[in-house]
Predict the structure.
Amino acid sequence: MRSSVSHIYTVEFRVSGRSLDPDAVTTALELMPAYVHRVGERIGRKTRETNTWVYNGYDDREQVEWPDLEEGLQFVLDRLWSRRHALEPFSAVAECYWWCGHFQSSFDGGPRLSPGLLSRLGQIGAALCIDNYFSADP
């Protein structure tokens, strides 16, 4: 855990697929990704099997932390909103999804999302994945 806050979140919008061209996503959306993964890249003992375009609302900033999941999702969603129709062609050849990291040092609490945000997220047409991580250290 990177602070004394018991819940911290990261939010990324990802487009991932074996035949995906991440540069085509950048061109179509006119947004610079935070980073890109390509088939064949090594990560530890594993080799990437898909190409992935990752956007968190910032150019070339790999990880941004949020004290509130809704705030982080809203931030990234606001930047993607006007480009949501440009995502449609990629849905046919790749998986589009929200990846959210939930880093917690306590078992109480957690994210709470408003109906308005849930409605807007649904209009993007991408799955929401929340990956939970626990650390006893503050």
